[in-house]
Amino acid sequence: MTEWEFIDIYEDPEAKLAQVRLILEALDVAQLALIEKGAIKSYMLNDGQVHISRAYGSLSELNASRKEYEQLANRLIGKIEGRSTRFIPC
Tens digit of pLDDT per residue, the chain (90 long)? Predict the structure, then answer.
C-alpha cells in the first residue's frame, strides 16, 4: 500500500489528517536515524491493518517528502477549520 492509499482510506478530512500525522511521525524517526548514521534509511508504518515501507537515499530526499506531507496536513487543517487570520502581538 502506498502513502496516498493509506491517507485516502477515509473521506473525512480529520481522519485523513490523523493518517498524515502518522506518516510525519514515522518520517521524523527516519530523519533522526539518517542524521545519526548518514546511511540510506527507510521507515515503516504498521497500524495493524496497513503496512507501508519506503526507503530514502539522502536527507534532502527525506526532507522534501516531509515538506510535502506537512503542506498536505496544512491543507487538511484549512478544510477542517476554514480560513482564519491570527494576530500575534509583537
Answer: 788 888 888 889 999 999 999 989 988 888 887 777 766 566 777 777 777 777 777 778 888 888 999 999 999 988 888 876 777 887
pTM (predicted TM-score): 0.67
Check: CB of residue 4 under 8 Å from CB of residue 16. Answer: no
- Give the domain extent around 71: 3-79
Residue with cell 473521506: 11
Question: What is the per-residue DSSP string for 2-49?
Answer: -HHHHHTT-SSHHHHHHHHHHHHHHHHHHHHHHHHH-S-EEEEEE-SS
Is residue 67 one of the residues assigned to a domain?
Answer: yes
User: Number of folded domains in the chain?
Assistant: 1
Cell 500525522 belongs to 21
8 A C-beta contact, residue 28 and residue 20: no
